[in-house]
Amino acid sequence: MRRSLVVGNWKMNGTLASAELLVKGIIAGLGDNKADIAVCVPYVHLPKVSELVENTALAVGAQNVADKLSGAFTGEVSAAMLTEFNCKYALVGHSERRSYYGDTDETVAARFCQAQEQNITPVLCVGETLEQREQDETFSIIDAQLNAVINLAGIAAFGAAVIAYEPVWAIGTGKTATDEQAQEVHQYIRKYIAAKDQAIADKIQILYGGSAKPDNAKGLFAMPDIDGGLIGGASLDAESFLKIYHSI
After folding, report:
1. DSSP designation for 159
2. Are 110 and 78 in contact (CB under 8 A)?
3. Residue 10 has pLDDT above 70, yes or no
4. Could you give the CA distance from residue 187 to residue 196 in angstroms, rounded to a whole number?
5. 3-state secondary structure of 103
6. Binding-site residues, please?
7. What is the pLDDT of residue 180?
8. What is the CATH number of the domain that holds 72?
9. Cβ contacts of 32 within 8 Å, gap of 6 or more
10. Residue 73: partners with Cβ closer than 8 Å, 6 or more residues away
11. Among residues 45, 94, 96, 186, which one is catalytic?
């Protein structure tokens, strides 16, 4: 049985003071550790948040990771640097990084590998735009995004990774994929991996990342191939984030 996972993505939000209040609120409401839970916070908040989550069930992650180990790459943060703050997870290939900052399937795969080399679990974000969905390109887009990692790291790399399916058309738009639409793509991803390694497909956590909220999380999480969520806006409020977590 796969263990479920809920990851909050704070994006570029919050102050040090609000981050501390939010983390303390989440920790206070965790209750039984029935699923894995993490928050991916802005780089500048990692020192404080990593200190606050120590010896709790709440893990911390980064929102991105450099595709190089070190060097003259101004503004980048390496996986080795992230390990100093006990980062368990790092998002790679989030749709906002792909669309706003030029990440390609190849650079995302390099970031994925850099995270794993430092024993950080990459959360590989994959998904299609509205235009791509309307042109029936969803599965070919998913194939390309997965294959970039497989070609660079091999299928075995997914044995220590998480996948998050983000229908780009449902991020920050108020739209959400129906339970069945989300399940269809999650099932496709799992079968795609199973064709290469059944054991990894059975084990890997595949999260839904498209405007999940307290009122729709339970239905999404009930789907057989949806193992939790990558939560954006709702993760900025402890009560909402905890409701999603407890709907597992």
Report:
1. G
2. no
3. yes
4. 15
5. coil
6. 9-11, 172, 211, 232-233
7. 95
8. 3.20.20.70
9. none
10. 66
11. 94
Residue 208: give the domain boundaries: 5-246
pTM over 0.90: yes
Look at the chain and report how many structural domains it folds into: 1
Asked if 38 contacts 5 with a C-beta cutoff of 8 angstroms, the reply is: yes
The encoded tokens of residue 198 equal: 């059944």
Within 10 angstroms of residue 47's Cβ, the number of other Cβ atoms is: 12
Cα distance between residue 39 and residue 130, in whole Å: 27
By three-state DSSP, how is residue 41 classified?
Answer: strand
Q: How far is CA 58 from CA 46, 133, 150, 186, in A?
A: 13, 35, 30, 25
Annotated binding site for substrate: 9-11, 172, 211, 232-233
Query: What's the token pair of residue 22?
Result: 């939010």
Q: What are 32-78's pLDDT values in tens digits?
A: 878 999 999 999 999 999 999 999 999 999 999 999 999 999 999 99
Cα dist from 223 to 34, 103, 181, 241, 245, whole Å: 17, 30, 10, 19, 15
What pLDDT digit, counting tens, does each position of 135-144 carry? 999 999 999 9
SS3 track for 179-227? HHHHHHHHHHHHHHHHCCCHHHHHHCEEEECCCCCCCCHHHHHCCCCCC
Rounded to an integer, what distance in angstroms lies between the CA atom of residue 101 and that of residue 118?
24
84 among known catalytic residues: no
The answer to whether residue 246 is catalytic is no
Whether residue 50 contacts residue 60, with contact meaning beta carbons closer than 8 Å, is answered with: yes
CA distance 175 to 148: 28
Both structure tokens of 4? 């479920």
Catalytic residue, chosen from 45, 96, 166, 186, is: 166
Q: Percent of the chain scored above 90 by pLDDT? A: 90
